[in-house]
């Protein structure tokens, strides 16, 4: 006696038929929403909505990204710089007391008293903010076409592809202390203005004009033509910097203008940069360590150059 077929409920039979229909047609029921569609709909932004650019507090930034500078000296110098566009100062009560004389009276600039936790949420726990954070725009550099306007300066500094923000910030601090007129850098492979660089410079970034150039060797040649003696620092240079400064400081060869040229640690000056310099010089060290960090070498070389200019 043949067995009876199993009974199938109408609802179950309908679902099976639906699945078979979808399989044959190669498409799913368009009326059914995927389980996460509602969640996506909640997070989707409306068309045309504008998003605020994040503040840049580290070592990298885009050309138009706003900055969050921190540290008392850095923030004070930025507040006092009329060329700097500033939007908001966040400070603890103690830091605010120290910065009050520098706070500009300008429309649209806001001052907020906050606690340390609020500042750490902006710049991170590792940043030495000293109770102050300034939201501002990056500075506008000098245009390379203005090179010939530097003729009135007596001391310039040229950096050949130095990218470390700590080194560049320390170099800028020494440059301002020794009255360097302008800092010339490469347009590419250079340290951009960031909060880390500004903190390392301790305010010098707002005192020292910078000029990025695309063809550094041609720029150095142009400096030679307008009366600068360009001295390229090279650990294998044929002459000592002190001796060279003494030689060109004699009454007949008095250096009216000096431009010091420094390269990145490790690779040093590039070949075309070396060839464009008036002299390649070295810093002779008396101790067992013969080389210096680039920021220390810059400070020493700038001091010797400034002394030669002042005594000449």
Mind explaining what this structure looks like?
Helix 6 runs parallel beside helix 7, helix 6 packs parallel to helix 11 and helix 9 packs parallel to helix 11. With 312 residues, the protein is an alpha/beta fold. Helix 6 links the parallel strand 5 and strand 6. The protein contains eleven helices and eleven strands.
Count of DSSP E strands? 11
Backbone structural class: alpha/beta
Which descriptor suits the 3D outline?
elongated
Strand order of the largest sheet: 7-6-5-10-8-11-9
Q: What are the secondary-structure elements, in order, as H or E?
A: HHEHEHEHEEHEHEHEEHEHEH
Q: Percent range for helical residues?
A: 25-40%
Strand content: 15-25%
Between the first and last Cα atoms, what is the distance in angstroms?
Answer: 125 Å
Low-confidence stretches: 1-18, 20-54
Mean pLDDT: 85
Mind summarizing the main beta sheet?
7 strands, parallel
What gyration radius follows from the Cα positions, in whole Å?
Answer: 31 Å
In quaternary terms, these chains amount to single chain
* Count, helices: 11
Short description:
This protein is an alpha/beta fold and 312 residues long. Helix content is 35%, strand content 16%. It is elongated and about 60 Å long.
Main attributes?
312 residues; 7-stranded parallel beta sheet; 35% helix; elongated
């Amino acid at each position: 006696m043949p067995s009876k077929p199993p009974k199938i409920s109408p609802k179950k039979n309908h679902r099976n038929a639906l699945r078979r229909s979808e399989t044959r047609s190669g498409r799913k029921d368009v009326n059914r929403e995927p389980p996460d569609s509602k969640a996506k709909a909640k997070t989707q932004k409306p068309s045309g909505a504008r998003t605020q650019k994040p503040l840049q507090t580290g070592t990298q930034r885009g050309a138009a990204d706003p900055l969050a500078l921190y540290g008392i000296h850095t923030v004070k110098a930025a507040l006092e710089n009329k060329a700097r566009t500033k939007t908001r100062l966040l400070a603890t009560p103690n830091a605010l007391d120290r910065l009050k004389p520098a706070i500009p009276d300008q429309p649209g600039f806001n001052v907020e008293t906050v606690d340390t936790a609020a500042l750490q949420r902006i710049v991170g726990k590792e940043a030495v903010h000293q109770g102050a954070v300034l939201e501002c725009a990056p500075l506008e550099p000098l245009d390379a076409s203005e090179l010939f306007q530097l003729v009135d300066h007596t001391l310039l500094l040229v950096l050949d592809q130095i990218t470390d923000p700590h080194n560049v910030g320390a170099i800028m601090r020494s440059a301002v202390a020794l009255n360097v007129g302008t800092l010339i850098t490469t347009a590419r492979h250079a340290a951009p203005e960031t909060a880390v660089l500004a903190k390392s410079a301790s305010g010098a970034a707002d005192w020292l004009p910078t000029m990025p150039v695309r063809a550094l060797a041609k720029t150095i040649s142009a400096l030679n033509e307008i009366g600068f003696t360009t001295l390229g620092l090279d650990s294998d240079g044929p002459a000592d910097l002190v001796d060279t400064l003494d030689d060109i400081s004699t009454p007949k060869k008095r250096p009216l203008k000096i431009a010091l040229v420094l390269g990145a640690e490790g690779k040093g000056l590039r070949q075309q940069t070396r060839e464009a310099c008036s002299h390649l010089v070295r810093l002779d060290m008396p101790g067992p360590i013969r080389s210096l960090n680039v920021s220390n070498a810059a400070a020493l070389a700038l001091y010797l150059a400034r002394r030669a200019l002042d005594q000449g």
